[in-house]
Amino acid sequence: MVGAWRDELTEWLAPFVGMLGDRRRARMCPAYVEGLIGPGDRKSVQPMAMRSPWIGYDQLHHFIGGALWDSAPLEEELCRQADALVGGNDAWLIIDDTALPKKGRASVGVAPQYASALGKNANCQTLVSVTLASNEVPVMIGLRLFLPESWTSDAARMDRAKVPAEARAYRTKPDIALAEIDRVRSAGVRFGGILADAGYGLSGPFRQALTERGLTWAVGIPYKQKVYPADVAMIFPVAGCGRPRKNYVPDVASRPAQEVLESAKWQTVSWRRGTKGKLSARFAAMRVRVADGPPQRIGDLGQQHLPGEEVWLVGEHRSTGERKYYLSNLPVDTPLRKLAGAIKARWVCEQAHQQLKEELGLDHFEGRSWQGLHRHTLMSMIAFAFLQARRLRAAGRKKKKPEPTAAADPACHQTGNPDPTQPASDANMPALP
Length: 433
Hints:
With 433 residues, the protein is α+β, with helices and mostly antiparallel strands. The chain is built from 15 helices and 16 strands. Strands 1, 2, 3, 4, 5, 6, 7, 10, 11, 12, 15 and 16 form a 12-stranded mixed β-sheet that branches. A hairpin with a 4-residue loop joins strand 2 (111-115) and strand 3 (120-134). Helix 3 crosses helix 15 (370-394) and helix 6 packs parallel to helix 15. The longest helix is centred in the C-terminal third of the chain and has 25 residues, at 370-394. 40% of the residues are buried.
């Protein structure tokens, strides 16, 4: 039985191995992925090499940290494999980030910053993650390191970590996420919309960029995000004195999302069935205009953002007493249950983060370089995709057939009507080997 999954892995990795060219690298890739999947608590290079009877430490270390090979073809193949497993108009592309706690300051990107897994600031590396998911089955297809300003302002430090020239300019996490979205779209990955938490949803430019790309999205926002009523009108104010006014202004003031939804009708909504029964919370939704348009001085209010896109404002009251708020550009006729289902579909990426760390050693890499870290994360994602393929096959699920227009037509990402409210069909899948 143990040998069976190794034989399956060799067959499954064949497209990846074929892109490496050199026969030595072609041996190292399966060895590294097998080391991540196989037994042993520690999945850094040295203990993996010690557990292998035919691969030495120097060989494995050189493959992941120093050998000359291009990751891009393997990343594209990972996108193809993920799309075949879970891609389609019923899939979501989930944007999030995950922290890798680290000691010291020499490892690339490590700095005191907020670690979502710990719920506090900690010395860590932060990776922007991209997960393709459908029917509660996640496949991670992107992990990109975020470099804090303490790194991008220190050229000598980046030299030591071998940060490539194209990655040295400071980029926000939403900027990195948009670049990753463009990358996976160009690779032909099919999905119905984008999901992200408030760390990304609070960015007006991020939401606007998704809309400009013709994408459907649902994102978290802070409770104080300001919005206007959907029927807000732009009027030309009459000047009481002085020069005539030159700019139109809204006929009502914007208000925080929390305040706007206080008077809304709240309903208990179940979005799917979990292992302990139906998952439910109280939700409310209304159409609004987001206050993320151009800034303008409005009378005594000072500088205010003008009304932007009309979207759904959704509130969630959890049984714990916690309250969350979201924006979505899903169609105006979308039922509340589908809004709730879309919002809650994001949480499957947390499962992927957890399994990548606990089962596959995502956070075990001990090298310090940019290239070494990203190669390790790529091998981890390839290992995770293989395990998801095994789980789906064991559950009797077949690969999805590509849709004729999906590969090259960006419109396929905006026309889907995903229904994440349907119960997961893989609830009884076997555990990871």
